[in-house]
Structures are given as structure tokens and as C-alpha cells.
Write a sequence for this structure.
DNA sequence: TATTGTTATACTCTATAACTATA
DNA sequence: TATAGTTATAGAGTATAACAATA
């Protein structure tokens, strides 16, 4: 009826969205054992990677709005994985740190996440996997510049 | 502090999500001129690719719940791009079809979407692009089997 | 005046349950 | 009984505006 309509499974957008959705389902299933969501693990991992980040710094790295971070931290603090500490050099900021329990949980969860990812990629050979990651990184990097220029 | 924490930009999940989000932003920006969202275009394209699909068939192809399709069709019908027709052979079903205006709009929107995608991929050479798409298709295919087995 | 964290609010997308009409 | 479409509703996730405390 209408020509020039690319089938869904040849569209980059559809493929990226579908691949992400499926990986996310598996990661969430694996993390359920550890009572964590993929979203929470991402936040915990950013905190783990660089202690003393503020809430705004963390939100920028995750690409999540600072107002969304508030509720996530409330929950992670409630279950004892994270601590907010007033930054004494700038009392507007909170410095985020993992608790001992948080460190244990992140280590286990990171292993679970990496296992799921490896299993998800099992269909690809090593070279294809390396090139896939490199291509995605290139797209993210090139997009970064534009997005910042436009923002 | 915690070792074995993979940086975000080496995680497949983060890369897929980020790449998709950025492409989606650009596609939506390009489609705004045509008063369409990427979501609407995906629905229109499925209808265009195979006339006489029912709402449930369309929802399955898109991976969108049938209840969500209802409101989307209401809007597309309201702006005159789509028609619901009772299937006379099974009066429970609606057969979906583009209007003449819908066909014109889809053709223009598909061109805009393809242009954005090509620009988004400009950083990659042809071989890398082909391999990226192939890898994503392989991941989608392998995941399909598992998801169906589990569902 | 500007910034950090916070609350309130709203909007989109998604998922579930229950209804209707048809089979 | 089961299925297609529909409605109502609730839950995530996200974004905006406005506020208090601090710079």
C-alpha cells in the first residue's frame, strides 16, 4: 500500500529498544534474588565508582533527573545500602556513600548483572561483541556533542 | 571502594538505553514537523505494511499492550490518518487501514525517520553499520525464543 | 542571586481487571 | 466458554515549578 516503509526489524530504533527491553527483563529477574532493580544497581554502582559524589553529580552521570534521585536514595537509605552525609565544605551538598552492607550487595549484584550480560551476548562471537560495544560507544559519544550543543 | 564494578559506558544495558534514548529524541524532533511522534509512526508503519491487521495483531507486532493501542488509534482516527473497519467475517475484530491522508503522512514521516537514522549512523562506516544491525537482530532473535519459552 | 536538595504535581507509558459484543 | 475491543485504574518513570537552606 505504502512503499518505502522499512520493516520494524530493520529499524535501528526498534532494534535498540527491543534489545534493551529484553536485556533489562533478564537483569531485573536476576537481581530480584538480591532485592534490587537494575535501576537501583545503576545508582549504587555510580556511588561505588566514586565516593563523595553529590546527588546532582550522580543524577548527571545516570541521566536521571535530580528530583527522581531523591526518592531512589530515600529507599536505598531505608534498606541500609546508602548513606547521605552533609558535605562540611559546602553544606548544600550531600555526599553519597555505600554502607558496608551496600558494598557487599553491589559486589554480588554486579556479578549477577555481568553474568546475565555475558549470557545475553552468547549468540555473538568475541569479535562481534567487541565491535557491537565499540559501535554503541561511538554513537553515544557523537550524540553527546550534539545534545550538549543543543541543550 | 568496591571492585569489579563495570563503568556505565562499558555496560551493554547502559549503552543500548542511551543510544536508543538519543536516537528517539532526534526522531521525535524530526517528526514534530509532521505532527507525529515516533510511537505513532511505528503504529502507522505496521498498519501500512499489512492492511487488514486487527488491533491485537498490531499490538503483538509492536510489543505494545492491546489496551494501549486503543487510545493511540482513537487519536490517529481523530486526526484522520487511520480508519477502524468492522471485519464482516468476524465482527469482534477491527480491520485497520490508513486513510489517503495517512498514506501521504507515513511516506513523508518514513523519509524523515530514515534520514535521522542515517545521520545518527554517520559516525560509523558501512561495514560497522551492517554488523551493528546484524548483531542487534541476532540478540533480538535469540531473546525471542527464551522469552516465549518463559512466557 | 545562584545552587542543592526537596516536595508537589502532572504527564506518559505500561499493566491488570472487568465490561460488551461477538464467536 | 473464549476472544476482540474497550474502559477504568494504578503503578512506574520523567519533567517542571516552587520552596528552604546555603553559598
Amino acid at each position: 500500500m505504502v512503499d518505502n516503509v522499512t520493516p520494524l526489524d530493520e529499524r535501528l530504533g526498534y532494534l535498540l529498544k527491543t534489545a534493551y527491553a529484553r536485556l533489562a527483563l533478564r537483569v531485573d529477574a536476576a537481581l530480584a534474588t538480591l532485592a534490587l532493580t537494575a535501576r537501583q544497581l545503576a545508582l549504587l554502582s555510580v556511588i561505588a565508582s566514586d565516593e563523595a559524589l553529590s546527588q546532582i553529580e550522580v543524577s548527571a552521570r545516570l541521566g536521571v533527573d535530580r528530583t527522581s534521585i531523591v526518592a531512589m536514595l530515600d529507599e536505598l537509605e531505608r534498606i541500609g545500602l546508602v548513606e547521605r552525609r552533609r558535605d562540611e565544605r559546602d553544606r548544600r551538598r550531600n555526599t553519597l556513600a555505600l554502607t558496608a552492607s551496600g558494598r557487599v550487595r553491589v559486589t554480588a549484584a554486579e556479578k549477577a548483572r555481568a553474568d546475565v550480560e555475558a549470557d545475553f551476548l552468547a549468540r555473538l562471537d568475541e569479535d562481534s561483541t567487541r565491535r557491537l560495544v565499540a559501535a554503541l560507544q561511538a554513537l553515544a559519544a557523537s550524540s553527546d556533542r550534539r545534545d550538549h550543543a543543543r541543550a
About this structure: The mean pLDDT of chain A is 91.
